[in-house]
Amino acid sequence: MSSVASVALTQAVIEIEQHVATDGWNQRPRMFALTPTADLLATQPRMAAALGITDEAAQAGGIPSLTSIEQEGLALNQPLDEMLAKMVWPPAVTGCALVIESQMLPPSAEEQIPEGLEGAALERWVGQHPERHDVRMAVGVLRDGTRQAAIRLRSKDSDMEVLSGPDLVPNLAEALLGTFEE
User: Residue 25 gets which letter from DSSP?
Assistant: First the structure.
């Protein structure tokens, strides 16, 4: 994985999270395909133009090196892991990003989880816990294994408070990388 790919993915994931944040909280999961902007300009000039990406902007350095394209029609009537297991990307897609909202507990509260609690019952328990944090997670990966995440806490709902890093949501990153396996 190159540092150029890592920087491009970091920029894309943060921009995606900020884009989704403009629609507020309590959103459904949202998936984005990531493609090199130069490839999009060359192979899909109409789509690029519709997204406001032009050769002039590229020459002026005014476009990102990765372009995100939101995917409509996700099968949200099934668990996320099942949806991701069925997902396949065409070769032109070099990466993807998923934005989901969830609830997290601090490690001290995780020790309080009643033994054997799973699934919907666990979600209800976490949702009622006084120490829970509502979070929005944007996780992106590239085919080469590069990964990045951006996390926004509802209690600190500001672009300046978004945390980012490659290893913040490792299980989701692995699941997204699995969508590129042949």
Answer: S
Give the separation between CA 137 and CA 163, rounded to whole angstroms: 10
Q: Residue ranges per domain, the chain?
A: 3-34+69-180
d(CA 180, CA 182): 6
Contact 150, 138 (CB under 8 A): yes
pTM, rounded to two decimals: 0.81
pLDDT tens column, 131-143: 888 899 999 999 9
147-153 sheet: strands from edge to edge: 66-71, 30-36, 95-104, 133-142, 147-153, 163-165
The residue type at 57: A
Rounded CA Rg of the chain = 18
